[in-house]
Design a protein that fits this description.
single chain, about 260 residues, alpha+beta, S-adenosylmethionine decarboxylase, six-stranded antiparallel β-sheet
Length: about 260
């Protein structure tokens, strides 16, 4: 299973880049090649500017790789963005940090690389819900059977159960047409994501639940228990810090087209 998880929280970014669909698309097209990661789909970009708080608008984008993903969530009007790279291909933290900084400038960075195989016996870091940006649940599931349809339906149902707002339907894909090794799914919620990567041969899965607002931990654990019984391990980290109003930019309210939500 992929085990290397790079996370970067960046502040003081430039709106012209982080609010540019073409720039984000080009970045995702290039980053997998330059970091030596195997993509299995083209970039998928989701503009999100119809949120209740217009300063929280921006772009969420992802590429699914072989058993992992690259995600970017930008908040142009708050001058920050968040990056995740989950892969089993080695690259240095400094290389990844410099790569994103050169293309999406930021003057304050906080990055780390976590080995997903080793974290579950570690002590979870302290979390301050009044200062931190939001939670990132890292989950490993063993001895499980997941189908393409099961992953789709699980992603399609979980967001509303944990009080997250889905802004697309789930995107689920095999890593290759013949004899797939992985089934991967991503659901973009309001400026964050939920992801599942299932190894068909080993019947293990890595799941990420990343939110820009803190969730009810008891509800999360209840859903995981119902879905996986005792076959999962969970580790919670806190991402970033609350937005700095000194960076706030002028925003324009955009009307949401919500007809798709009425048909599900």
């Amino acid at each position: 299973m992929p085990h290397l998880h790079f996370m970067m929280d960046a502040y003081g970014s430039v709106e012209e880049s982080s609010n540019n669909l073409m720039s984000i698309n080009e970045l995702l097209n290039c980053v997998t090649h330059d970091l030596g990661i195997l993509p299995v789909m083209p970039p998928f970009l989701v503009p999100y500017y119809y949120c209740n708080n217009s300063e929280d608008g921006g772009i969420s984008a992802f590429t699914i790789c072989k058993g992992g993903h690259v995600t970017i969530h930008t908040f142009p009007y708050r001058a920050c963005y968040f990056v995740d790279v989950l892969t089993d291909e080695f690259f240095s933290q400094a290389t990844a940090e410099n790569y994103f900084k050169e293309r999406l400038f930021a003057n304050k960075l906080n990055s780390k690389i976590i080995d997903r195989r080793m974290i579950y016996n570690s002590k979870e870091p302290e979390i301050d819900v009044n200062k931190d940006f939001g939670p990132h649940y890292m989950i490993e599931v063993n001895d499980c059977e997941m189908s393409f349809e099961w992953i789709y339906r699980w992603l399609d149902n979980i967001a509303t159960k944990i009080n997250m707002l889905p802004i697309i339907r789930p995107y689920v894909i095999y890593d290759q047409i013949e004899n797939p090794e992985y089934i991967s799914g991503v659901l973009i919620v309001a400026q964050s994501h939920i992801a599942v990567h299932y190894n068909v041969k080993t019947q293990t899965a890595l799941i990420d639940i990343f939110s820009c607002e803190f969730l009810n931990d008891n509800v999360i654990k209840s859903i995981l228990n119902k879905s996986f019984g005792n076959n999962y391990k969970c580790f919670l980290v806190s991402r970033g810090s609350k937005h700095d109003d000194n960076y706030k930019r002028k925003t324009v309210r955009i009307q949401e087209s919500a007809e798709w939500k009425q048909n599900i």
